[in-house]
Design brief:
Layout: E1 14-15, H1 17-27, E2 32-35, H2 39-45, E3 47-48, E4 53-54, E5 58-59, E6 66-67, E7 72-73, E8 76-77, H3 81-91, E9 100-103, H4 109-119, E10 125-128, H5 148-151, E11 156-157
Parallel strand pairs: 1-10, 2-4, 2-9, 9-10
Antiparallel strand pairs: 3-11, 5-8, 6-7
Amino acid sequence: MDLPIGKTTELGLYLTAIEAYDLIKKGENKILFIDVRTQAEIAFVGIPTVVDANIPYEVIEDWNQWDEKGKTFKMTVNDNFVSAVEKRIKAKGLNKQSPVILMCRSGYRSADAANLLAKAGYKNVFNLVDGFEGDKAESGKGQRVVNGWKNSDLPWSDELDKAKMYL
């Protein structure tokens, strides 16, 4: 798979949204599927119905901090990310050898999250490279209308399940 550097991971395990959905359907309860987007993204954009949990990789700790380069609010890595994944792994009866699929908006944050889990000893962490919203179109206004979970017509909802949310 030919990927931009920012979507590559130390483990080198990659799936498209369609491949991830097929694997989840076949794997039943033997895979942990985590959406690493922020709670705001989940609340306003939606979430796959088959996701096990939302655990943000990055959080906005102070809404008064600005990231000039990114033209957005400053985000920092969630100090509780690894421990929250660990809780979900154990609750599902899985371990650090079990497959974990990580998804963000477009595949960049999930790559960083996959690298963090690899450093914590996880062995089968897949980056869902086209994310929930997909890649930006080369033509037009740069909208995210290419690939991704939503654009592939995979099951998602804007109704949230409290048991799956990061609280």
